[in-house]
Automatic annotation (TrEMBL):
Keyword terms of this UniProt record: Glycosyltransferase, Transferase
Record carries keyword Signal: no
InterPro entries: Glyco_trans_2-like (IPR001173), Nucleotide-diphossugar_trans (IPR029044), TarS/TarP_linker (IPR054028)
Highest taxon listed in the record's lineage: Bacteria
Name used for this protein in its record: Glycosyl transferase
Pfam name, any one: Glycos_transf_2
Native source organism of the sequence: Plantactinospora mayteni
Annotated TarS/TarP linker domain residues: 228-319
Glycosyltransferase 2-like domain residues: 7-128
Length: 532
């Protein structure tokens, strides 16, 4: 009997009822059951997941291989067990929460064979407002450069891999990593690949955010994430020689994984954990953060990183507290140099270097705004709009280089007008048409981060959800005083949607567009019932 074209590896731990939809999406693949192998590894599930896997194995005995094992604490072990049992020419990893489009495997295998690809990315979309970076999926591409493309921030394992490549180089998941073990696995596969390709003309993979948010990634804690980041940065440094290629990978780790450890929720940790995070990131910054990487980070991120290296924990917490509870600090201008006047700046008791606070070469600094008011209203044309009032401590935005200043919710531009300026700062009125927000959504829902840009609107520079502000001249709006926003209900086709301004865990302003479904309503009621 010939080997299957593709082996699908599914690590499983307590994923009912999502698992059933995942498995259904596999048996309905147009590639046909005879051309695929499903290796499902039950990692000690305590719900009905193991039983559900056995049910599918009994129904499709020539296709399914089910492995039951004691819980290993993370997906790395199950992925390795599945990979060891795989016999297909290609391997594809699927999260048990997620599901595939019906033509996914057929299209991927056909393209990989035609293009002789070792790694092939098919378009991934988020479900239940789960954010997935989309820039790598701008177009179909036969050849993608790992070091000169958006690929470094799309290193999840949801890709087609040539199994011969993995076996030849002995590429496996690092089982000591409870979370994010797919990053070094995918990075090395892409680094060793002769050809990496992208298919963007079909929705191949649906990445699901559970309503309950109970999977291992969502529940991971700061110290565990710190250990994982330390291990992954060391792995990158060992794999790739110093220089521009290593920096291309490192900058994505710093502006996402490392930056998330010094977001506003650090304030809620106990003192011992805060100190461990401060000291650990300080070591990473000293060892791996080159000037070239720092130049690609936003002001908020680079200032916080500098204080892990050059300041104390209290210095870092004071800066975070300023952003989270007060707002954008004033700017000190001295000749051609500019400094962010955060707590600790030129405080003789702190003795912090000015370089920690310098924003001279940070193009997005003048675009930093605090959202201070929200409301739905009718505009001059009678259309429903979300009006946001925002504040900047800069009395002259144009003089500071923010002319024009544009605001967008990712690819959706807003009407932006400076309505007051003077010694107390500047006030900006921002308006999003409800119709634009709704038209830009997808059936499964989407959250967009709101950001301001220096210069005319450019969708390629607008911040995506979970992005850090960068050197492109865009900065996320913060909403330190947003408590409870009123949603707007709108119909699109046969479905009702909620449009809501909200705030993420780091205090950034988001606009959420989600369908009103029975499951979402039930989940929201459960959350309310759990509240004290």
């Amino acid at each position: 009997m010939s080997a299957p074209d593709v082996s699908v590896v599914v690590p499983v731990y307590n994923t009912m009822p999502y698992l059933t939809r995942c498995l259904d999406s596999l048996v309905r693949q147009t590639i046909g059951l005879s051309r695929m192998q499903v290796v499902a590894v039950d990692d000690g599930s305590t719900d009905r997941s193991g039983t559900e896997l056995d049910r599918y194995a009994a129904r499709y005995p020539g296709t399914f291989t089910v492995i039951h094992q004691p819980n290993s604490g993370g997906p790395a072990g199950p992925c390795n067990r599945g990979l060891d049992a795989a016999t297909g020419r290609y391997v594809f990893f699927v999260g048990a929460d997620d599901h595939l489009g019906p033509e996914a495997l057929d299209r991927l295998v056909t393209a990989a064979d035609a293009w002789e690809s070792d790694v092939l990315l098919g378009k991934v979309v988020g479900v239940n407002s789960r954010h997935i970076y989309q820039d790598i999926f701008a177009r179909n591409a036969v050849d993608v450069d790992l070091f000169d493309s958006p690929l470094p921030r799309s290193l999840a394992n949801t890709k087609l891999f040539r199994r011969e490549l993995l076996e030849r180089h002995g590429i496996r998941y690092r089982e000591e990593l409870r979370i994010a073990s797919d990053l070094p696995f995918t990075l090395e596969a892409c680094y060793r690949a002769r050809r990496i390709s992208v298919l963007a003309d079909y929705e191949f993979y649906y990445a699901v955010r559970r309503f309950s948010a109970t999977n291992i990634t969502y529940l991971s804690r700061h110290l565990e994430r710190l250990r994982t980041v330390e291990a992954n940065l060391a792995y990158v440094a060992d794999l790739i020689e110093p220089g521009k290629r290593r920096d291309a990978i490192m900058v994505r780790r710093f502006d996402h994984e490392v930056a998330k450890l010094v977001e506003d929720d650090l304030l809620r940790l106990d003192r011992e954990s805060q100190q461990a995070v401060h000291d650990g990131i300080g070591r990473l910054v000293a060892e791996h953060l080159t000037e070239e990487i720092a130049d690609q980070l936003g002001a908020e991120t680079r200032i916080r990183f500098a204080l892990t290296r050059d300041g104390s924990l209290d210095d870092l917490l004071a800066v975070i507290r300023q952003d989270a509870e007060v707002g954008v600090p004033a700017t000190v201008v001295e000749g051609s140099r500019r400094y962010a006047a955060y707590p600790g700046f030129r405080d003789p008791a702190r003795d912090l270097p000015d370089s920690c606070f310098e924003v001279t070469a940070v193009p997005e600094w003048p675009a930093r705004l605090d959202a201070t008011g929200f409301g739905w209203e009718d505009d001059e044309r009678g259309e429903r709009v979300l009006t946001i009032t925002a504040y900047s401590p800069l009395p002259d935005l144009a003089g500071a280089g923010a002319d024009p200043l544009t605001v967008s919710a990712e690819e959706i531009p807003a009407e932006t007008v400076v309505i007051a300026r003077g010694g107390a700062g500047s006030t900006v009125r921002i308006r999003f048409r409800a119709a634009d927000l709704l038209a830009g959504g997808i059936a499964t829902g989407r959250r967009r981060i709101v950001s301001a840009q220096v210069g005319s609107f450019d969708p390629d520079r607008a911040l995506g959800a979970n992005s850090a502000a960068g050197a492109g001249g865009a900065a996320a709006l913060r909403a330190p005083r947003l408590d409870r926003a009123v949603p707007l209900v709108r119909r699109r086709g046969a479905r009702l949607y909620l449009l809501t301004p909200t705030r993420d865990e780091s205090g950034r302003l988001m606009i959420s567009v989600v369908p009103i479904t029975p499951g979402r309503v039930t989940a929201r009621l459960r959350q309310k019932l759990r509240r004290p």
